[in-house]
Amino acid sequence: MSKLAIEGGTPARSKPLPPNYPGASVMGAEEAEQASRTILARSPFRYYGPGMQHAVQALEDAMAKDLGVPYVLGVTSCTAALIVALKALGIGYGDKVIVPAKTFLATPGAVVCAGAVPVFVDVDESLNLDPGDLERVMDDEVKAIIAVSILGNPVDMEPVMAFARKHGLYVIEDVAQSCGAKYKGSYTGTIGDIGVFSFQMNKVITAGEGGALVTRDPQLFDRAVRYHDQGMFRQKARYEMDSPEETNAFIGQNYRMSELTGAVMIEQWHKLDGIVAAMKKQCGSIRASLAAELPTMRFRKTADPDGDIGSNLGMIMPSAEAAQQFVKALHAERIGVYILYGGKPVYMIPQLFHQQTAEKDNFPFNYPFEQPVTYTENMCPSAVDLIPRTVYLPVSPTLTDQDVREIVEGIVKVYKHFFVQV
Predict the structure, then answer these.
(1) What pLDDT sits at residue 2?
(2) Which of these, 280, 281, 313, 321, lies nearest to 297 by C-alpha position?
(3) d(Cα 109, Cα 357) in Å, to the nearest integer?
(4) How far apart are CA 91 and CA 143, in angstroms?
(5) What is the Cα Rg of the chain in Å?
(6) What is the tally of structural domains in the chain?
(7) CATH number of the domain enclosing 191
(8) Residue 203: active-site member
(9) Residue 405 exposure: Cα atoms within 13 Å on the Cβ side
(10) Closest by alpha carbon to 158, among 178, 166, 309, 150?
(11) 102, 182, 203, 280: which is the annotated catalytic residue?
(12) What element of type H or E holds 110?
């Protein structure tokens, strides 16, 4: 066995892996041309201007057609989309929302910003929420579930939807990290009541920032549009919702997507299938090679292997210490792997764990719930165990077959050195 780079040996790769920015890595003249049209037309605002290009509308129409949903709304970020979704569903002060223990801070943060309080469900070996743990956190004050497909791996939505329908809950699908993923033939984001997407820098497709909301429900869409645009619905005729009376009007905020974002995103959206196909091919090749060489290696499970987009390969190590050791050694081999979110459940972030907000009396945590919301370090034991043990390899759509061979070589060398008895 060749000597590890961390011990002075030759690294498996001569240069680092491509940075983990799938959409940005294929960004080029097409996005620049679309953005320049908007700039030269002097019309960066989506609803009016001297030379409207209607880029955001084109993005919404393309997403609706390809996803098979009637309603898509471009917004400023996925965080904005989450808040708009919660407000569209009428969720706020006095409500609880189920959130997985493994997700980015924005997911429970949006719940708090909407005036509700998150309660946390554990994960299983998919590192997505465990449908079998939903009953533990269910009570009469829970109004919705946010199902988050982490790093391209779809949530097992069938039992989630069954649980939600049984208890009369709404379901929001947060597919910020999993644009293009599918579950049993349906795109993630189109299965629940509302789906939300992210176009932030390190997402599958990107404009640096941006997001979208999708739904099949016209009433929810009406409320979402209004909340994202100061309570107004400027394009009712576009959706055959034209009415002379504003009977559904209420006060909203400003989460409107700009035409510049829309211009970049329409080209990125057209590249999505190619990005996903490239990632799936190379991720599948890496996993198959590792499974053949390392029969004891445990991989992250998936509810739908065909629906996983292959943006990241999750490898579960024997312990948190072993995972740290594995990461350090692979970095020396110039293979950039990582442990997500510092190896901790999201509820351990101090401002969440201590229920601290910028509002008076720590609103909305000050609501007198019949079942008080308290967070403890080990309340989601599988998350506490699995998150620090799971090492992710990002799979760029620009990886070559040579890159794949070198990645496999490096991982096999390191894994055998630490975990395989000779």
Answers:
(1) 87
(2) 313
(3) 10
(4) 7
(5) 22
(6) 1
(7) 3.40.640.10
(8) yes
(9) 4
(10) 166
(11) 203
(12) helix 106-113
pLDDT of 214 reads 98
Cβ partners under 8 Å of residue 368, min gap 6:
none
Beta-bridged to residue 62, according to DSSP, are none
Q: According to the model, what pLDDT value does residue 390 have?
A: 98
Beta-carbon contacts of 304 under 8 Å, excluding residues fewer than 6 positions away, are 154, 182, 183, 184
Whether residue 279 lies inside any domain: the answer is: no
Evaluate whether 182 touches 157 at the Cβ level (below 8 Å): no
Question: At residue 37, does pLDDT exceed 70?
Answer: yes
What does pLDDT average to over the chain? 96
3-class SS of residue 94: coil
CA angle 240, 246, 251 (to 5 degrees): 115
Residue ranges of E strands in 274-416: 298-299, 312-316, 390-394
CA distances from 167 to 121, 160, 195 (A): 16, 11, 20
Mean pLDDT of 63-75: 98
Which stretches does DSSP call E strand in 285-401?
A: 298-299, 312-316, 390-394
Is residue 118 in some structural domain?
A: yes
Q: Which residues constitute the domain of residue 65?
A: 29-268
181 occurs within a structural domain: yes
Token pair in block for residue 54: 């209607």
Q: Is residue 74 part of a domain?
A: yes
What whole-number distance in Å separates Cα of residue 115 and Cα of residue 92? Answer: 5
